[in-house]
Amino acid sequence: MAYLTLRNVNKIYPNGFHAVHNFNLEIEKGEFVVFVGPSGCGKSTTLRMIAGLEDISSGEFLINGTRANEKGPREREVAMVFQSYALYPQMTVYDNIAFGLTLQGVDEDVIEERVNKTAKILGLTEYLDRLPRALSGGQRQRVAIGRALIRKVGIFLMDEPLSNLDAKQRVTMRSEIAQIHQETGATTIYVTHDQTEAMTLADRIVVMKSGYVQQVGTPYELYFKPANVFVAGFIGEPPMNFVRSRVENGTIDFGGQKIDLAAARPDLAGMEGKEIVFGFRPESIVLQEREKAARIDCQVELTEMLGDNTNIYITCGEKQAILKVDSHDTPETDQPLRFYIPQESMYVFDGETEMVL
Ligand code: ATP
Asked: Which of 140, 152, 252, 269 counts the most CB atoms within 10 A of its CB?
């Protein structure tokens, strides 16, 4: 039996807005699940329903197989870390971390032992006497995580916990969160709009759009086997290149050039005459001639050096796309370029439903 189950969960706000539609998910104990999607897709609403901070309009939420819809946040044994870490400014780090236990009237000795242990996991031992204002943003966020961790709850919920940090701190905290999860093994649900956070942290990712789950899968599955155009475009940086085209004589049109779809996907023979969305990832192209690949001639408009990789902005006729290559292979701008899309890196989606074919 799954540890947490969401079964046909819907959220309709009092103003009638249907924010979450038929959300279904099973989460195993110890799993790290990330909800990801653009702003307003219903991630926080779903998390808040799990936390017990928001009513479930219809459907069921179960913990260990027992209905928990009517249970309050405390009974659900959840701890939540929010975007704004909201520490008590007049309290030391020690007291901030200890706060929940102090409220519960836990023994001083026990509190001290647990604060020290939590501080050790979070690398805060030497800051226990400081006030929050004497900490960096990343350290403050760690205190906020500590405050949640110390409660030893079954479910750890995080809503964009890194969004107040600068880019460098975010990277550091990301790996720290992964480490904390490894050490504590707490079942974690983490909300973010950042696909890199989702990809690096998650055992499984739930991609949402406009209140609907688009796909649930491991980072590997989402990247290599996206269920639809939305997921394919959302996961990956720069995003997958797409072109809409009708299939004619087994080929599709890419900015005036033909791509032999029939050779790449003989299973799609029935698609003749139909509109499809063709996709390929910027990093999947090769510059060396290659068998079983589509050859494309394009014009280099701009290059963007990122360190070991370079993004190349190209045009093929009226079509624009982005390629990503090893920086040692950076081409000249305003020059023609020939590249190859390996057949195994081609994605084909239904033009109408936008589901993968
Ligand atoms: P973000 O990343 O911006 O926080 P999100 O995916 O977490 O977005 P939610 O906060 O879950 O999105 O909101 C989902 C939708 O529900 C949004 O369109 C939002 O405007 C709407 N919504 C949120 N709270 C309420 C409310 N109390 N009443 C009515 N609509 C709401």
From this structure: 252
What would the pLDDT profile of 24-37 be if each residue is shown by its tens digit?
999 999 999 999 99
CB of 81 within 8 A of CB of 149? no
CA distance 67 to 54: 16
CA–CA dist 99, 143 (Å, integer): 11
Pocket perturbation via mutation, ligand 1, pick of 12, 13, 158, 194 by most ligand atoms within 8 A of CB: 13
DSSP tally for the chain: helices H, then strands E: 9, 19
Token pair for 311? 């993004």
Compute, in angstroms, the gap from residue 14 CA to the centroid of ligand 1.
12
For 350, counting Cβ atoms within 10 Å of its Cβ (0-12 exposed, 13-18 middle, 19+ buried), the class is middle
Measured by CA distance, the residue closest to atom 31 of ligand 1 is 13
Residue 45: how many other CB atoms lie within 10 Å: 23
Q: What are phi and psi of 194, to 5 degrees?
A: -95, 110
Contact 351, 299 (CB under 8 A): no
CA distance 59 to 211: 15
Tens of pLDDT, residues 313-352: 999 999 999 999 999 999 999 999 999 999 999 999 999 9
Q: How far is CA 138 from the centre of its chain?
A: 20
Note the pTM of the prediction, 2 decimals.
0.90
CA distance 193 to 209: 11
Q: Does the C-beta of 265 come closer than 6 Å to ligand 1?
A: no
